[in-house]
Design goal:
heterodimer; A: alpha/beta; 6-stranded mixed beta sheet; 9 helices; globular; B: mainly alpha; MetI-like fold
Chain lengths: 257, 242
């Protein structure tokens, strides 16, 4: 099957520092990919360039067969302008470490804003879609609450519902439980599990939850210094890591728990 | 906060009472001063509206991706912030006619003071917009919102909440700066006081009374802005903005 996301020779630099180095990565439709690695290894940057929050310097990214970072002009590929990027990036949704909910809107309004003003849904349709999703993440009773009246776990679940309301094909989760108190991590992971069961969604998640990665992901990618140092199915990856860096990282992480 | 407001109002009442007690016969000045105060209020309100419009335009232009807009905004802000408000009024009133543009004194007062305060306001607008968390832009991008939609629906509503307290300051500055218009022939509160003093020589009563009227007007601004802040704060579910 054709990949839904394809990184081809992607390099991302900040000044002289290369954060992604000629990266190749194909993700199959409906695949769940867990991305792990030490801080500064480029794993969050991978999600950020895919969401077009950052521009890449070399290579090209395809989403659902369409180039995302470039567009065709007179038979050649040139860097994409904003308008073109908007036409492609609608297939991608993202959930952030710090939730980034809109503080001046209720949970419901947070989930209705973009469907109404970007997709052009009527108020009624947007509200129906938003309340269905908020119910799905277990927040039927919090629809009229503003973010500062919600716990971190509740805020993150609103953020997931908000992203899903745009009906993306690919969901990006950037350390979505890292800012949460330990007792709130489970409720967010449960929602993600549920998405994996019920929705036909491709997911890329940067995570420090090794147990969750092992249980949930189809594939684990270990990032080291801007490259994928090792990848494979979780059982193989966690029980028999081939790469020395992977072994060092896993034992350091396991020691901490 | 309510307690503090009540205290201020009580202080005003007390001062007023004191005036009544100690300056018998001050009533004869009141009609004249009130007429002047009405002019002061008109100039303040109209100039404040112009200041907000000018500040929003210039503040947004300063953040524009179009260089010419940034330049124009910078030139406007630097000229009106970097020169004396009194000289600006004189220039508009006495110099512009030499270039064939004659404006009424009221127009000059409103335009001059409005643009002057608007220049300070532009920095308030720019600062408040830049203070909105970067994550808000990222969330909007992730929801595929366009730049203009992001500004209109996400960034500016949050920036407005943050800019209310500094605007309260600017409006009070504006109120006090209106005293300058007495020097371009407008019979505002300060000019009335000056006139009455020339005729009656009751300097103590007149200028004390004028102080009290300015204080009362500025308290109206303070109370109004606090109510607005509470209202907007309630929209954030905090009652207290950010």
């Amino acid at each position: 099957m054709d990949p839904i996301v394809s990184f081809q020779g992607v390099t991302k630099r900040y000044g002289y520092l290369s954060v992604l180095k000629e990266l190749d990565l194909d993700v199959a439709p409906n695949e769940k990919v867990a991305i792990i690695g030490p801080s500064g290894s480029g794993k969050s940057t991978l999600l950020r360039v895919l969401m077009t929050l950052e521009q890449i310097q070399e290579g090209i990214i395809y989403v659902d067969g369409q180039p995302l970072t470039h567009m065709e002009r007179n038979g050649a590929l040139v860097p994409a302008d904003e308008r073109y990027q908007r036409s492609v990036r609608g297939k991608i949704g993202m959930v952030f470490q710090n939730f980034n909910l809109f503080p001046h809107m209720t949970a419901l309004q947070n989930c209705m804003e973009a469907p109404m003003n970007v997709l052009g849904l009527s108020r009624q349709d947007a509200q129906a879609r938003a309340s269905e999703l908020l119910e799905m993440v277990g927040l039927a009773d919090k629809m009229q609450s503003r973010p500062n009246r919600l716990s971190g776990g509740q805020q993150q679940r609103v953020a997931i519902a908000r992203a899903l309301a745009m009906r993306p094909k690919v969901m990006l989760f950037d350390e979505v439980t890292s800012a949460l108190d330990p007792e709130l991590v489970g409720e967010v992971l449960n929602v993600i599990r549920k998405l994996g069961d019920e929705h036909n969604l491709t997911m890329l998640m940067v995570t420090h939850q090794m147990g969750f990665a092992r249980e949930f992901a189809d594939r684990v990618c270990f990032f080291y210094e801007g490259r994928i140092a090792e990848q494979g199915p979780p059982n193989e990856f966690f029980t028999d890591p081939k790469n020395e860096r992977t072994r060092a990282f896993l034992s350091a992480v396991l020691e901490a728990h | 906060m309510t307690i503090r407001l009540a205290f201020l109002i009580a202080l005003m009442g007390f001062t007023g009472g004191l005036m009544v007690a100690s300056f018998a016969g001050f009533r004869e000045f009141i009609p004249g001063l009130l007429m002047g105060a009405w002019v002061t209020v008109q100039i303040t309100v109209l100039a404040a509206i112009l200041a907000v419009v000018a500040a929003m335009a210039a503040g947004l232009a300063k953040l524009s991706r179009i260089r010419v807009l940034r330049w124009i905004a910078n030139i406007y802000v630097e000229i009106f912030r970097g020169t004396s408000a009194l000289v600006q009024l004189f220039w508009l009133y006495f110099v512009l006619p030499h270039f064939g543009i004659s404006l009424s004194a009221m127009t000059v007062a409103v335009v001059g003071l409005g643009l002057n305060v608007g220049a300070y306001g532009a920095e308030v607008v720019r600062g408040s917009i830049q203070a909105v968390a970067k994550g808000q832009y990222e969330a909007a991008t992730a929801l595929n919102m366009s730049r203009s939609l992001t500004m209109r629906r996400i960034i500016i509503p949050q920036a407005v909440a943050a800019m209310l307290p500094p605007w309260g300051n600017l409006f009070i500055e504006l109120l006090k700066a209106t005293a300058l218009v007495s020097l371009i022939t407008i019979t505002d509160l300060t000019f009335r006081a000056y006139q009455l003093n020339q005729v009656t020589l009751r300097t103590v009563e007149i200028f004390t009374l004028v102080l009290v009227v300015y204080l009362a007007l500025s308290l109206v601004i303070t109370i109004g802005m606090r109510a607005l802040e509470r209202r907007v704060g309630a929209d954030f579910g905090t009652g207290r903005v950010l």
